[in-house]
Queue: 2 jobs
Job 1
Amino acid sequence: MQLTKFIYFLIEENKIEVQWRSYQIQEQNELNSEMLCSSNSFLNLNPIVSSSINKPLIFRSLRIIKFTVSAKMDQNDAAAPPFTFLTRKPYTPPSWASHLNPLPSHAFSLGHLPTPIHKWNLPNLPNNTEVWLKRDDISGMQLSGNKVRKLEFLMADAVAQGADCIITIGGIQSNHCRATAVAAKYLNLDCYLILRTSKILVDEDPGLTGNLLVERLVGAHIELISKEEYAKVGSVTLTDILKEKLLKEGRRPYVIPVGGSNSLGTWGYIEAIREIEQQLQTVHNQLKFDDIVVACGSGGTIAGLSLGSWLGTLKAKVHAFSVCDDPDYFYDFTQGLLDGLNAGVSSRDIVNVQNAKGLGYAITTSEELKFVKEIAAATGVVLDPVYSGKAAYGMLKDMAENPKKWEGRKILFIHTGGLLGLFDKVDQMAPLVTNWRRMDVHESVPREDGIGKMF
Ligand SMILES: Cc1ncc(COP(=O)(O)O)c(C=O)c1O
C-alpha cells in the first residue's frame, strides 16, 4: 500500500514538536489548511520503514516535508485497515494503565471511534469558562452512546467464554439494554432483557416507544418485572434466575450487569481517556481540560474516566452528576470497580459526585425539559432528558450558584447519548415545541388543474 505521509515541525515558543500523519492523497495540491489544522488523525512518531524526502513546503507556522512512504500499515496507523469493524482484536492497555489487574485480553471493535470533540457555546457561562463537548452520543451501534465502549470489552469476554446468548437488565427505557441487544445481534448472539416497569404495566405489552422499538426490531427476548419485585429480589438474583433457566435449556448465557458497569466494562472509559489524550495531541494551541463533566447512572463511566484521567496525562478533575442514587452510593460502588482492578486509589480522591436526580430517576420536571429544549435551540445539540440533560442542567445550575468555582476553566462535557429516551417524553415536550404553522400561499398564485406531481 502506498501512503503519502507529511512530517511537520510545529515551532512554538522555542519548542519543536514533531508529529506525522498519513493521507492517501492523489495530488500534491490537495494539501490544504483544513487537513493540517482540523483533522484529528495525528500519529505519534513511528519508525519510518522507508522514505524519500521531497522538497520542504512552508505552510503558515508549519514546516512540512512530504514523505512518500511504502509501508505495511500497522494497527496504530491512523488510516485504519479496512473491515476492522466488528472484529475481535488483542487489547493492549495504555502504558499508564498496564499495572491494573486483571487486564482485558481482547476487545471488539463496535464503536465509531474516536468520537468528535468540539466547542459547545452554552449560554450564561461564568467569565472565561469554556465548555467542550465529547460526542459519545454518536459513537455508533444505533445511537448506543457510552454503552458501546463498555460493550467492546464485555462482548469480547462473552465470545471468549463461548456464550451463545447475552442476558442483561435495566429500566423499561434502558439505553444499556437496547445497546446490548443491538451489539449482540451484530455478533450473532441472542439477547434476553429483563426490563423494570411499573406494577400496573407489568402484564401488558410494553409498546414500541423509544428504546423498546429498537429492542423489539432486533428480536431481543423481553421479560418484564415490576419495580417492587426488582427492589425486593435484586438485579443479580433476577439475572441468575434467567441464567439457570437458559442453562437448563442447553443455552450458554453470558450475564452483563446493570449498565454494563463492572470492572471489565470500566475499561471502556479508561480507553476513552487514551482517545482524548490522543485527540489533544493534535491541537496546536495546547488545549488542556481542567474538568470532565458527565452523567452518572450505574457508575461504570465515571470509574473509567476518573481512573484514566488520574493515571494518564490528562489529570482533569472528574465531576459526576448522579441521575438516580446519592453520591455516597456512587463513591462506594465506584470504589468496588476500582478495587476490582487493583487500582489502589480511593474513589473520593479522584471523582466528585453531585446529586442531579431531581424528582427521581427518569422523572423530568418541566424546567429540565425546557432546559433541554433551550440548549437544542441555542446550540443544535440535543441532550437526553434522563442523563446528559440532567447532568448539563446540574452543571449550569452549579455554575450559576458558584461561578468562582468554574471561572476560567476548560471543561470537557461527555455527551453519553440516550437520545431514544427522548421519545418517551414527547407528550411532556409537546407544549414546548409549538413552532409550526400552515403555509400561506396567496390566492393569486396560479394552481395547476388536477392533482399535480409530488416529486
Ligand atoms: C445515555 C446514558 N448516559 C449516561 C449513563 C450513565 O452511565 P453509567 O451507567 O456508566 O453511570 C447511562 C446509563 O446508565 C446512559 O444510558
Job 2
Amino acid sequence: MNSLTATAPLRVAIPKASLRLTMRSNPSVVAMTGLRCGSSTLGINYHPQTHTKRFISTTQKQQIKEFFPPLKAPHVKEVETAWVHPVYTEEQMKQITVAHRDAKLWADWIALGTVRVLRWGMDLVTGYRHPPPGKEHDAKFQMTEQAWLRRFVFLESVAGVPGMVGGMLRHLRSLRRMKRDNGWIETLLEEAYNERMHLLTFLKVAEPGWFMRLMVLGAQGVFFNGFFLAYLMSPRICHRFVGYLEEEAVITYTRAIKDIENGKLPHWEKLEAPEIAVQYWKMPEGQRTMRDLLLYVRADEAKHREVNHTLGNLNHETDPNPYAAKYKDPSKPHPDKGIDNLKAVGWEREEVV
Ligand SMILES: [Fe+2]
Ligand SMILES: [Fe+2]
C-alpha cells in the first residue's frame, strides 16, 4: 500500500467552502490552528500522523498534504522537466524590493490602467484589501492564512496564462511567416511553467472548493481570450501589462512575507514547504519554511517583472530575446536567468540589443 492510500483523507466537507486548508493530523498543528472546529467556511482533511523521512531530505515529513497522487506508471520513477529552476540564495532573495516602472508612453498608461482595473477585480474576488500606508495594523486589513492562500491560488491561476499565450502566438507566427523567432518563445513558455509551479505548490497546501474553481474557470475563459486578442494587436502593450501585473505580485508576496515575520500568520511559522517546492527550487535544508517558499516565489515574480518590462522595451518583430542571447562582449552586464543582475524596471533596448 502506498502512502497515499495509507493516508486517505476523511474530509469534513462544508459546501460553502471556497478554499479548504489541509494538513496532516499533527495534533500540535491542529491544536495550534484551532482549525478542527474552526471557521464554518473551512473543510479540513485529516490524516493519520506520519513521521516518515522526506524523499530527498533528512527532515521529518510533518504538515505536508499530498493532493496529487504519485505516478501510477509502474516503470516510471519520475518525470523530468526541461526547465530546471536556477538556484537563488537567501541573500539574493532578500534584495528583492517593491518597485514601479513609471508609465511614459500612452501604451504604458493603457497597460497600467488595465492592471489597476484587474487588480480591483482580483481584490474583490479574493476578499483582499490592501492597507494604505500607516493602516497596516487595522483589523479590517488583516489577512489570515486561508485568505492569503485564496489570493495566491487565484493570482497564480491567472498568472500562468500570458506566457503561454505569448509563446503560442509567436510559435504560430514563426510557422506562418516562416521566420525565426529569435529566442522569445522558450522564455515565455518557461514563465508560464514557472507560474504553474507556483500554483501547484500552493495547491499542495490548500484545496480550492467549488466556488474558487468556478472563479478560476471564469477568469481563465475571459482572461485567455482577452489576452490572446490583445497580444495579436500589441505584444508590446501586453508585455508592459505583465510587467505591471508582476509589480503587483511582488507587492502581494512582500506583504505576506512581512505578515509571517511579524507573527500575524502563526500557522505558517513552522509549516514546511511542500516537497514539490523543495525539489523545484532546490530549497536547502533548514530553509524550507513557508516564509522561505514565499521568498522564492517573490523572487520569481520580480524576475518576471524584469523580463516583461524588458520585452516591452524591445521590437518584438526584429530584436532577439536578451535572456537567450550570447553577447559579443560577455564582460559587460547582461540579462540572464538569475536574479543577480535584476533590474526592477527592465533593461532598456540600447543596453541589450
Ligand atoms: Fe507566480
Ligand atoms: Fe509572475
